[in-house]
Structures are given as structure tokens and as C-alpha cells.
Specification:
alpha/beta; 13 helices; Cathepsin B, Chain A; globular; eight-stranded mixed barrel; six-stranded antiparallel β-sheet; single chain; TIM Barrel
């Protein structure tokens, strides 16, 4: 069979498709031939006024349950409808356990760019405030012309969501260039490039004459995959059970980092990692509180974190060193002392630049390092997002702690940290 060129693998990016009721039911046995070549999928859930795509549940079960690939839902946004009601209808169809919720922005309904932009803003914030992973799905032309024209000063919500752009006429290199100058959207927030709408549907188990299928490539790392067997579930035996935190949590994402112009959401990955680390040692804090404490205690040089500053937090806490390179031996030594460590990674391994991002290593499951990632509050295997730690860790920072925290003090701090429970 002559495969479409987009499937001729020596590819570096994961490949996926998106479907709707315009596509026919699929032959799962044929489709399995393209797994894991097809490693993620989206399906249309419906449209604004509450219409549900009649094949959504079928496609969700097919990809999420039967094939075990990353699965997201997209919902067509109508600028003329109440954005709050649209968000409620989206969630009523999909539930709150989906891996991605994308607003498909492609209709004007006679509305102005400002009205479309406001609808998108409210729709997105409604889902963000529910703690859901929100995406924007549109074309670069639409983004530049309707959602974020050049003359605007861009509000924070633009980069609180991930973006999925459809652009069929550009090569990968050209597309990356378009994203570099995309108005308002940071390059590192563009996760998916829809490259074509003309994949042969028969490749994916559809009958002859079926509508052609959209093809997409995932640009940043890999789509995090659900476990497919008991062996792939994270073994917590040698993992510190440290609650993940996200720097883009609506409670603190817009707070300025120290006295700089940056925010916790844009540049607070390291500070959020330090917050998780401090909470593990019993400090009653969160990213907002930690940011305020660091600002008052010499914790920043502009927006750069001062490593020794948190020694003041607890007696016995000492900054050990910041090591250049992967230094896996230093990581293992720190973990052997039941101390997490902070490591510098490339935020977007798909580009040639090494974008600074920090994650917290909290243990090992087999041979895999387990991380809490501040960019989205996930707990994942390092290699599932950033690749081989031996080559993709650029700096390692470790601390030691000789102090002790009594059980009574831990209980007291937990009591204060969870006022809703009493």
C-alpha cells in the first residue's frame, strides 16, 4: 500500500488524526496497524447550542479505551451564543476527565473580531476555572486576524491555553517560522500543527468513498499516554508522594514574579518546583505565598531565583550545589536521601533552541525518573515528555536537610494548610 507521505516515518513528531461524524465508523483491526504510528486523536464533541456529535462517544471509546491513545475533544464555538452556556454544554457532553478541551474557532456569525475574541476569552476562562486543560483550535490566519490582531496588548489568557493551528500549505520549517511571529501566542504554547485534511480514510479502516481524514503532528515532546498494562503504571514504592502544582493555576498564574514584569504563569516554573519541595518538608505554602516570601527575603535577582535564599525557610535546609550537565549520579544520591531535586530541561524539545524549564524529580519507578511538572501540574515519567534524561537534563540542583519535623508539627501544618476540612 502506498502510504500518504505524512505517514512515511522517519518522523520525529508524534502523529495523530481528528475525526467527527463526517467520518465513517472505522475497522478497528485495520486501525491497529497504525498504532502507535497514530499516537493521539481528537473528536468533535458538538456545537455551541448543545448539539452533540452523534459519533463522539463511539470515537472516544475507540481511541481512548480500545486503542489506548491520547484523546481530546473539540467543540465548535459560536460567537453569537452565551460563552458561559457554551462552556457548560461542552462539559456536559464530555465530562471532566478528558485530556484536552479545544475550542474550534472558525465561525463569525456576523460578529466583530472584538466580540469573537471576548467569546473565546470567556469560554476559555470558564473551563480553566474548572481546572480543565484548555486548547484553542484555529488557523494562523484566523488567530492573527480575529483573535489576536497586531495592535492589541495581549491579555494573559492567550497563553494560559495550548494552541492547535491548522495550516496545510507550509512545511515544518516554514510553519515553525510562522509560529515564531504569531501575534500574542508564545511559540512554546503551540503544541499541534494540523498539516492536511486529505489523508486517505481507507488507511484508517474507513470504507471506500469515506471523507478524508485530518492529519496532525504533536510539536512539543510527546502526548502523555495512559498506561496500557499493569507494568506501565507508576510504581510509587521509590517515589516521594509530593502533590504536583501547576504554575498556570488560576489562583496565582497572573501574580508578578518578585518585582519583575514576568508572572508565575509565564516564568514561575522553578519557583513552583521549589514550592512543591518546601511543602514536602512541611512548610505551609503555595506558589503565591512562596513568591511573596521570596520577594521579601532576597529570593530573586530580577526574575532569577536565588538558590540559597530558601535556607531561611527551615533550620537545617542547605543548598548543596547546582551541577552543569545531566549528573544522574547526583540525582540518584539525592533521591537515596529521600530528597527531591530540581532539574533544567528543554521546554520544547522539538525546536533547536534550549528553552529553560525546571521540573522536580521526586523518585524512580524502575529505571524511569518520575517528575512533577510545574507547567501543567502533571506527574509523569521524565522520558514520556522530555526524552532521555542522560542527554536532556542540562542542570541539576540539590539541597540537603538535617532538620527534623515532629509528627505533631506536621499535623499542625496540615491542619492550617487545609482549612476547608475543618
Amino acid at each position: 500500500m502506498n502510504l500518504d507521505p505524512i505517514l512515511n516515518v522517519n518522523r520525529t513528531e508524534p502523529f495523530g488524526i481528528d475525526v467527527s461524524s463526517n467520518n465513517d465508523f472505522m475497522d478497528i483491526d485495520k486501525l491497529k496497524n497504525y498504532i502507535p504510528k497514530v499516537s493521539f486523536a481528537w473528536a468533535r464533541s458538538g456545537m455551541s447550542w448543545g448539539w452533540k456529535d452523534p459519533k463522539f462517544d463511539y470515537f472516544r471509546d475507540l481511541y481512548e479505551n480500545q486503542l489506548g491513545v491520547w484523546f481530546g475533544a473539540y467543540h465548535v464555538m459560536y460567537p453569537g451564543e452565551s460563552p458561559v452556556n457554551q462552556a457548560k454544554k461542552f462539559v456536559s457532553i464530555v465530562g471532566k476527565d478528558c485530556r484536552g478541551y479545544a475550542w474550534d474557532v472558525e465561525l463569525t456569525h456576523g460578529k466583530t473580531p472584538a466580540q469573537i475574541r471576548e467569546c473565546m476569552r470567556v469560554c476559555s476562562l470558564e473551563l480553566l476555572n474548572m481546572g480543565l486543560p484548555v486548547w484553542g483550535y484555529t488557523s494562523p490566519g484566523w488567530a492573527n486576524g480575529w483573535i489576536m490582531p497586531k495592535q492589541l496588548v495581549y491579555p494573559a489568557w492567550i497563553n494560559q491555553i495550548k494552541w492547535w493551528f491548522a495550516q496545510y500549505t507550509l512545511s515544518g520549517v516554514e510553519y515553525a517560522g510562522v509560529c515564531d511571529i504569531m501575534n500574542g501566542v508564545k511559540r512554546e504554547n503551540v503544541y499541534i500543527h494540523q498539516t492536511t485534511s486529505s489523508l486517505n480514510g481507507r488507511l484508517f479502516g474507513q470504507p471506500v468513498g469515506s471523507p478524508k481524514t485530518d492529519g496532525n503532528r504533536w510539536l512539543i515532546g510527546k502526548p502523555p499516554m495512559p498506561p496500557t498494562s499493569e507494568d506501565e503504571i507508576i510504581d510509587m514504592t521509590n517515589v516521594m508522594n509530593i502533590d504536583p502544582l501547576s504554575q498556570v493555576d488560576p489562583r496565582w498564574k497572573d501574580i508578578r514574579l518578585g518585582n519583575s514584569a514576568a508572572t508565575i504563569g509565564s516564568d514561575g516554573c522553578l519557583m513552583t518546583g521549589v514550592t512543591m519541595f518546601a511543602r514536602y518538608l512541611g512548610v505551609d505554602t503555595d506558589p503565591a505565598k512562596m513568591n511573596a516570601w521570596l520577594t521579601a527575603n532576597g529570593g530573586y535577582y530580577d526574575k532569577l531565583f536565588v538558590w540559597k535564599s530558601i535556607e531561611k525557610l527551615l533550620p537545617g535546609l542547605t543548598f548543596t550545589a547546582k551541577y552543569t550537565g545531566s549528573n544522574l549520579d547526583k540525582i540518584d544520591e539525592s533521591l537515596s536521601r529521600k530528597m527531591p531535586c530540581l532539574v533544567h530541561v528543554d521546554y520544547n524539545p522539538a525546536t533547536s533552541l534550549i528553552d529553560q524549564h525546571w521540573v522536580l524529580i521526586i523518585g524512580k519507578s524502575g529505571a524511569s525518573y518520575i517528575i512533577n511538572d510545574p507547567r501543567d501540574g502533571s506527574r509523569v515519567r521524565f522520558e514520556d515528555v522530555y526524552g532521555d534524561p542522560a542527554t536532556n537534563i542540562y542542570n541539576v540542583a540539590t539541597y540537603s536537610f538535617t532538620g527534623t519535623i515532629s509528627d505533631a508539627e506536621k499535623l499542625s501544618r496540615l491542619w492550617l494548610a487545609h482549612p476547608t476540612l475543618h
